Amino acid sequence: MSTRLWPRRLLTAFYWFVAFTFFMGFVTKYWPGPTFFGPAYAAKFVEWGYPSWFRFVVGTIEGVCAVLLVIPRRRFKFIGATALILVLTAATTTHIIAGSELYERVAAPTNLVIMFIFALINWPADWRDLLRQERLPSVSQRA
C-alpha cells in the first residue's frame, strides 16, 4: 500500500469520527428525556437562557453538517465546517457565560478549533466554486 494513502485515510477516518460526534449531538438534542450527557436538552437550553425548541434548530444544523462532513467533495466539507464554526462559537460563548460543566467548556472550543482546521483544509480556491454545479461527463467523454 502506498505511504501517501495513509494520511488521506487517517484524515477521512477523522472526518467520520467528528461527523459521528455531531450526529450524536443531533440525536441527543431531539431526544425527549435525559441523555447520557445529563439532563434533557430541553431543560439545558432553558437553563442557558434559550427557548427549549431552539435545541431542534441546533440539532438540525449539527445533523446536516455531520452529513456534509462525510460527503467526499471539498465544498460540502467546507460548508459543513463553516456552519459548525458559527454554531460552536455560540456554544463556546454560552458554556463560558453559563458556567457549564468543565467538559462542555472544553469540548465546544476544541471542536471549534477542529472546524477551523477543516474549513482551512477545504478552503475553496475561488468562492464561486461553492456555487458552481459539477458537470457530469457527456456521453462521448464516458465512452
Q: Mind explaining what this structure looks like?
A:
With 143 residues, the protein is mostly helical. It has one domain. Helix content is 69%, strand content 0%. It has six helices and no strands. 22% of the residues are buried.
Provide a compact summary of the structure.
It is a multi-pass membrane protein. This protein has 143 residues and is mostly helical. The protein has one domain.
> Whole-number average pLDDT?
87
- First-residue to last-residue Cα separation: 30 Å
Rg from alpha-carbon coordinates: 18 Å
User: Structural class of the secondary structure composition?
Assistant: mainly alpha
Q: How much strand?
A: under 5%
Transmembrane segments: 12-32, 52-71, 78-100, 106-125
Membrane topology: Multi-pass membrane protein
Subcellular location: Membrane
Protein name: DoxX family protein
